[in-house]
Amino acid sequence: MLQIEGLTSRYGRIEVLHEIDLEVQSGEIVSVVGANGAGKTTLLRCLSGVQPVSGGKVTFRGSDITTVPAHRRTALGLTQSPEGRQIFTNLTVEENLRLGAYLFSDERVEKDMNDAFALFPVLKEKRNLSAGDLSGGQQQMLAIARALMGRPSCLLLDEPSMGLAPILVEQILDVVKNLRDLNVTALMVEQNALA
């Protein structure tokens, strides 16, 4: 589903990624574990199209997407749930979820929102609450649910356990494990090897 060949990326003259090769098959949940500053987030940013690639090739579902812009990659089914959640704290939970499905009809959005609430029941209880009033764990749930609203075939997860209590890490990782049931492949980067 997702192939990376010789991927290189730079910040100015500093090479952050050097000829990375990786393949993620359909239905797999793959984790990349590394220390802070190892280039994990840069890898996902390159795959999602946010960070330019200075060398190599990214193939998604058989098509070369190395130079495809980020918004087109999302439309193709490659979606990222970014590090630090990056939710809209001044919007409600429901409004955040709707933003994840901006490409789709209202009828489809309602169905997908109900699916998101089934994955994360606490979000249904808090659907009219400002996202800024959620706990850190609930905000992480919202970030993942928002990414799933676009019905990705491959979800890129950037440190979903970062800053969470162990019980919440367990809940988040249970959802990640069950992504296969939703026909979603996942590439997750983590600093926490125990996650």
Can you walk through the features of this model?
This protein is α/β, with parallel strands linked by helices. It has one domain (25-50, 69-190): P-loop containing nucleotide triphosphate hydrolases (Rossmann fold), CATH 3.40.50. 34% of the residues lie in helices and 25% in strands. The chain has 7 helices and 8 strands, in the order E-E-E-H-E-E-H-E-H-H-H-H-E-H-E. The chain has helices at 40-48, 70-76, 93-99, 106-119, 121-125, 136-148, 166-177; strands at 2-11, 14-24, 29-33, 55-60, 63-64, 78-81, 154-158, 185-190. The strands form 2 sheets. Strands 2-1-4-5 form a 4-stranded antiparallel sheet, covered by helices on one side. The protein has a 4-stranded parallel sheet with strand order 3-8-7-6, with helices on both faces. A hairpin with a 2-residue loop joins strand 4 (55-60) and strand 5. Helix 3 (93-99) packs parallel to helix 6. It starts with a strand and ends in a 5-residue tail after the last strand.
Features of this protein?
single chain, 195 residues, alpha/beta, Rossmann fold, four-stranded antiparallel β-sheet, four-stranded parallel β-sheet, 25% strand, globular
